[in-house]
Design a protein that fits this description.
This protein is α+β, with helices and mostly antiparallel strands. It folds into two domains: 1-144, Winged helix-like DNA-binding domain superfamily/Winged helix DNA-binding domain (Arc Repressor Mutant, subunit A), CATH 1.10.10.10; 148-220, Roll (SH3 type barrels). The chain is 41% helix and 17% strand. It has eight helices and eight strands. Strands 3-8-4-5-6-7 form a six-stranded antiparallel β-sheet. Strands 1-2 form a two-stranded antiparallel sheet. The longest helix is centred in the middle third of the chain and has 25 residues, at 69-93. The radius of gyration is 19 Å and the shape is globular. The N and C termini lie far apart (42 Å). The relative contact order is 0.10.
Amino acid sequence: MKKKFTISTEDYLKTIYELTENGESASTNALAQKLKISAPSVTGMIKKLASAKPALVEYQKHQGVTLTREGKRAALEVIRHHRLLEAWLVQTLGYSWDEVHEEAERLEHVISEDFEQRIAAAMGHPTRDPHGELIPTADLKMPPEDSTPLSALRPEQSGTIQCVKAADTDLLRYLESLGLIPGAAIEVKDYSPFDHNLTVKVGRKTVVLGLNVTSKIFIAM
């Protein structure tokens, strides 16, 4: 039987995973900012997670925090719940991609493993959520991602939008209005080295996008 964690613990583990998935450690300040909690409170919780049996994180003062094997599995379980729920809400209940994040945030902590398995099977075991983000496998492994951030592309390079790593409702609605959604073909027409803006063509539209947007869009080349 899988060990049950508190909602707070699951939120911490998921956030640490998101901050460290590129191999770096997560700082206390970064966690505090993302979780909207004071830095001293974060430090206290991190110490608690590090002293758990088995330990869920590895922590050294001033060097940030990383997940242990047990902590990573627990984080991937929550992420799998979240992304499957987002896919289910869109596919079954007619939610739009900008509506699902907060609903999934609430539900990810309470669904049973049986419910998870049933919705996955009912949807044909999807590999990506409505934003194109990878869904961890049933054995809690994250499939390899082969996309490139749009911010790294330069004029005349092109590809297809693979995923959008954003939860902000207004941003998602804005991107959808421009046709910048998973599956859309995109071509870079111009690049400004001074402000890192990209001029891109999507469908019949040509738009200028700043780094705050292009860093969140990932392209399959």
